[in-house]
Amino acid sequence: MDLGLKGKTALVCASSRGLGRACAMALGREGVALTLVARTAVTLEATVKEIERETGVRAVAVAADIASAAGRQAALAACPEPDILINNAGGPPPGDFHDWERDDWIKALDANMLTPIELIKATVDSMIAKRFGRIVNITSSAVKAPIDILGLSNGARAGLTGFVAGIARKTVRHNVTINNLLPGPFETDRLRENMRVQADKAGRPVEEVTQERMAGNPAGRFGDPEEFGAACAFLCGQKSGFITGQNLLLDGGAFPGTL
C-alpha cells in the first residue's frame, strides 16, 4: 500500500531505539526524509546509517535531549517545518506517589506532556499553511488503563491526551491530524530490562517471567516494534486525513473493555 508520503519530511523524537526507531524506519520505507533525535550519539548515528542503507532516504541525526529547551531548539533548527512530527520520550520511573516530590512531577510533565505540546506549537502552523500535516504522539496503554506504580506517567500522558483532544478538532479542517498511539508490551530493550528487574525481585529466571507475561496477553506474545511502526506510518498517510484526536491502543487485546 502506497501511503503517498514520498518526498515528505519527518521529525522523529527518541528514535535511536525501540518504538521511535520503528516509526522512523517505517516512514523511511515510504520515502520520507528523516530527522532523528535521541540523547546517545553513538546509537543514534548507527540507526541513521542503518535506515539510510535499508531505505535509501536521507536521514539526519540530532544528538540532544528533546525534553530540554536546547534539545528542542537543535531539533527544530535541523527540521524547522516538518510535514510529520512523531513525539516520543522515555517514561518516568515507577514508584509510590508518597515518595514523589514536586520536582519529580515537573520532570515528568516536561518530558511527556509539555515537550510534545511545545513541538506541536512550533510546527503546526507551517503544516496548516501547507495543508498537510501529521502529528503522532507515542504515549502508553496506561492512558487507557492506568498502572498504579506508573502514576507520573499516567498523569503526564493523560494531560497530553486531554490537550490533543481539543486541538485536533481545530487543525483537521486544514488536513493536519493529531493522534496518539498507545503501546502495550512490545519487544524492546526497555521491556526486556523491566522483565529482568521483575525476575530479580521475584528470584525467578527471566525466561520464566517473560513467558508468563506473554502467556497472559490474549495474543500470547509481545508486540513486534515493526507492527507499531506500520501503524504509525498508516496514521501519517495521505488517506488518513479523516482520523484525528484518536487514541489507538496496540496491546494485543490486553485491555478488556469494549470502548
Description:
With 259 residues, the protein is of the alpha/beta class. Helix content is 47%, strand content 15%. The protein has eight helices and seven strands; from the N terminus they run βαβαβαβαβαβαααβ. Strands 3-2-1-4-5-6-7 form a seven-stranded parallel beta sheet, with helices on both faces. α1 (18-29) runs parallel beside α2 (41-55) and α1 crosses α8 (225-236). The model has no long low-confidence stretch (mean pLDDT 96).
Short recap of the structure:
This protein has 8 helices and 7 strands, in the order E-H-E-H-E-H-E-H-E-H-E-H-H-H-E. With 259 residues, it is of the alpha/beta class. Helix 6 packs across helix 7 (206-215).
What is the strand tally?
Answer: 7
> What percent strand?
5-15%
Described by its quaternary structure, the protein is single chain
> Tell me about the biggest sheet?
7 strands, parallel
SS field, number of helical segments: 8
How would you describe the shape? Answer: globular
Q: Return the structural class.
A: alpha/beta
Q: How would you write the strand order of the largest sheet?
A: 3-2-1-4-5-6-7
Instruction: Round the mean pLDDT to the nearest integer and report it.
Output: 96
List keywords for this structure.
alpha/beta; seven-stranded parallel beta sheet; 259 residues; globular
Secondary-structure blueprint:
Layout: E1 9-13, H1 18-29, E2 33-38, H2 41-55, E3 59-63, H3 69-78, E4 84-87, H4 102-130, E5 133-138, H5 151-171, E6 176-183, H6 189-202, H7 206-215, H8 225-236, E7 247-250
Parallel strand pairs: 1-2, 1-4, 2-3, 4-5, 5-6, 6-7
Helix pairs in contact: 1-2, 1-8, 4-5, 6-7
